[in-house]
Amino acid sequence: MVKKISIGPTISILKVISIMVLALMLSHVSYAQDFFQIVYIGEVEETPKVFRYQQEEYPLYKVKDEIFITLSSLQAMGFKITEDTGIYYIEEGILGHTVTYLKSSGSAYMSKYPIYCGGIRSYALKSENQLLIPIQVLKAFGKLNEENEIYWIEDTFQNEIRLLKIDEDGIENKADHIMQLRCKHLYWNGESYEEVEECFILEVDEKRIWQKLSDSKKVYITTVIEEINEWEVPEAEGGCYGQRETAIFKQYSESIYLNKLKTIFPSCVIEGQMLHAVGPLKEKEIVEVLRSEKHYYLLIKDEKGNQYQVPYNSVKIIGEKGARWGRATKTQIEDFATLSHVESATNYLLWTDLYRQRTYVLIKDKGRWKLEKEFICSTGKINNPTPTGFYEVQYMIPYIGVQKGYRCKYALVFFRDYMYHSVLFDKSGQYIKSGQYELGSKASHGCVRLTEKDSEWLYTHIPVKTKVWIR
Questions:
Q1: How far apart are CA 96 and CA 80, in angstroms?
Q2: Tally of domains in the chain
Q3: Which CATH number covers residue 368?
Q4: CA–CA separation, 239 vs 205, rounded Å?
């Protein structure tokens, strides 16, 4: 049975005094009101679930196993929706069917701005063409029911929260009587939730201004009114109107950390300039050089992402974007591979870091990549770059190149004639011919060179089908 909220016209003097003392004790409680970072959260999935409103049904979506409804669906239902400096305010209205709802698809990112649904601050996700609202935040309008994959709202309680105006600045009493409030501020610290409780009273038309939190590591999520004049707000119980969704905020923190790691492990980009027009490519056009094929042609990519094969001598290599980087830590290497969700058909992963001229051998351990070995290496020269991307170890060869006057030992082929192998020996394999003192710099014709010892270790331990990541 839902407990109705009833506000008395007066409050006793002793109660007011006790409230004021408590409010004074908690008057320095403060919280952050910074906006969210726009980072990847997950893929939008269609569900068989629907939201029913006035005999009409509207589709619901899933991201990270949480259920969402689109802003356009709420508009189509007739909810009053206003926008102010990027923040949407959703209120109950009697506007009728005003628009046709749009479907959502693609990748979902955290929206920079929060939304307010009936006075409840909520995060939102942004897909290609839609703003996705957590279905649980609709509890701000009444009791949220679900049965047979159908959701609907039942207005079963006196919603005194409607008499409070809550926004990014603070909370204002719009009722005609004093309000004694107990609220809970909810934060995400990157790993778990933190709650700060606050009690205070608001005179008629009085506004309490929120103060910023100095701890930038915490993310302010919402403030929930839990009690009004010592009467509990029933819908405030449980998950804070859908704002305690751990999978969403765990992904939020991981995406922020991953973006930081991408500055430590940047993608290697080699720029070139067209010396003359080739097909749709214009003279002096800037392109990205992806790989070379035996000095016959280059595979390049234009600014629109289109790939072309062009004659080797039709491109002038300008240089690399970025700079040489210092050694990465073990934790950074493991975290970047794990958070990048790189999968391998075996328990091993070979990752060659082009900027640092290092090859990392990682092994899967309880769902995370752990660094097993780190080898110094030499990859392709700037005009013969090692192809970037994901590959697999296809097969192995004890040695190659004898017919050309040298011998490279312990070869692991991962793409066409690109492979991991040792530095160059003479035909007998006894004496190093070249490459030993070039390790740690770009010196090969596209293959990844290693010491004899390190290439032998790969040859002995790395199975076929192991994922190869060149970045």
A1: 10
A2: 3
A3: 2.40.440.10
A4: 30
Question: In this structure, are 316 and 340 located in the same domain?
Answer: no
On whether both 38 and 164 belong to a single domain, the answer is: yes
Residue 463 has pLDDT above 50, yes or no: yes
Is the residue at 251 inside a domain?
no
Q: 348-353 and 467-470 as β-strands: parallel, antiparallel, unpaired?
A: parallel
For 121-166, how does the pLDDT look when each residue is reduced to its tens digit (9 = 90+)?
999 999 988 999 999 999 888 888 999 999 998 876 566 777 888 8
Q: Report d(CA 38, CA 399) in Å as an integer.
A: 49
- Assess if residue 425 is contained within a domain: yes
Q: d(Cα 400, Cα 405) in Å, to the nearest integer?
A: 10
- DSSP 3-state of 161: helix
Determine the residue type at 196.
V
Q: How many CA atoms lie within 13 Å of 445's alpha carbon, on the beta-carbon side?
A: 8
Residue pLDDT, tens place only, 211-257: 776 677 889 999 988 888 888 887 666 668 889 889 999 999 999 99
Do residues 109 and 211 both lie within one domain? yes
Kindly calculate the radius of gyration of the chain based on its CA atoms and give it in whole angstroms. 30
208 and 308 fall within a common domain: no
**For residues 210 and 108, is the Cβ–Cβ distance under 8 A?**
no
CATH code of the domain in which 300 resides: 2.30.30.40
Show the tokens assigned to 358: 């290092």
Range of the domain at 293: 269-321
Question: At 444, is the secondary structure helix, strand, or coil?
Answer: strand
Distance CA 427, CA 58 (A): 72
- Selection from 24-38, 211-225, 274-288 with the highest mean pLDDT: 274-288
CA distances in angstroms from 64 to 54, 90, 117, 173, 249, listed in the order given: 29, 24, 21, 37, 10
Cα–Cα distance measured from residue 337 to residue 341, given in angstroms and rounded to the nearest whole number: 7
Alpha helix (H) ranges present in 177-322? 246-264
Give the separation between CA 357 and CA 352, rounded to whole angstroms: 7
- First-last CA distance in the chain: 59
Residue the block writes with tokens 């709650």: 195
**What was the pLDDT predicted at 226?**
87
Percentage with pLDDT > 90 across the chain: 65
Q: Could you give the CA distance from residue 2 to residue 158 in angstroms, rounded to a whole number? A: 10
Vertex 286 angle, CA 285 and 290, to 5°: 125
